Amino acid sequence: MISERTIRNLRRELKRSVLAKIGIVVVVLILAMAIFAPFISPYSPMKQNLENARQPPLGFSTQETREVTVTENGSVVIENGVVQTEERTVYTNASAAHPLGTDANGRDILSRVIYGARTSILVGLFGTTLAALIGVTVGLSAGFYRGRVDDVLMRGADIMLAFPSLVLAIALVGVWGQAKVAIPDPFVVTGIAGAFRSALGLQLGMPSNIILPGTVVLVVALVNWVWFARVARGEALSIRQEEYVKAARALGASDGRTLLRHVLPNAITPILVLATIQVAAIILLESALSFLGFSGASVSWGFDIALGRQYQSTAWWISTVPGLAIVITVIGLNLVGDWLRDALDPGIEGEGGV
Length: 354
What we know:
The chain is mostly helical. Helix content is 62%, strand content 10%. The longest helix is centred in the middle third of the chain and has 37 residues, at 109-145. 39% of the residues are buried.
């Protein structure tokens, strides 16, 4: 249960920091976009229209040289049995129907960014939760029992830190494969989203499932649990010396009860701050895996960046827009993490008041 003092600290730091307010707004908007994607997405993220391929965002236009068929009076010109072609400059203008443009298959970039938020946020939340469960359990056990238990658990953590995160993640995905979990979208399955879109005259056909890359969730958790373990261990080493812990053990409380009722609640503050920052780190790792083709998700910010690599000179927005979505989300999460750190850690001078 959050104490009144903690709530006061959070409110005071929030009033002082403009960056904290910006971070909260960004995170809330990204979460709302992910949750209510079936309602706000202009089109299905999988809907293709090759006639609108590589359409630029609003405010931009493109021109490129293409080889087109020569026609005369509406007929194709053929000489010596060969269809005649020539190079022409083709201009493509933006359309309000696709405010952020389209990709090489004519899919709406805005729709893919909205639905891509679901993949990144789910992987970030589930991955962080699983990493915290593993890391906090290991860290509290190591710090509370010390001795051989501490040595064995922390040496295992040191071994994990010896491997580069991305390389280890790629190796684990290669071993386990690309397991995907289809989560039914409650808004689409129940027909709520369809009725809403039909009432507003929007296109139907939203995806009925949310595809969660299960292997990636496990991988990012195994890569990042070490940070939670080290923080939890440090807190446990300090808290186990407190009088209330000694009193609980003297009264016969079991080790498990002591850890859950006395050690964990008093160690939760730095763990919570770390979890906020780790969500951002895991989103970056998931995007890197998707970019490299190891995620298995077909609607992901990293996957869309990879699709736009070959069109950087002619259709820069295909990879730039999802890249900006990643940057904005990570910055927002880090700002929220800084706010929590400044408000919950009395040993750190607040950096608000920007």
